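INFO  loader      accepted 1 record
INFO  loader      residues=93
INFO  predictor   begin
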Amino acid sequence: MELDLTQRTIDAIARKAADIVVKKLKQAEQPKFVSTKEAAAILNISPGRMRQIADRFPHIKKGDEKQGKLLFVRDALLELSVRKKDLNTLNNT
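INFO  predictor   done
INFO  writer      dumping tokens
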């Protein structure tokens, strides 16, 4: 089976494929951030405790120095949460 494609069609397909690849790469590059409250829920601790130990986790601070909002990298928290649950399971068996 042979297709007869014009150069214009080939170029359009290539542009569409490139757009899809660029979009996927941009999505993969940007970590998903969660608030202090959400981060605390993932780790099963209070938001106050999460703020106390914030420097132990990858995060950014939005806003001014004193009143800035902490945003934590969700995947890092989930990974720790899973490891913590695995350790608890091992310790309780």
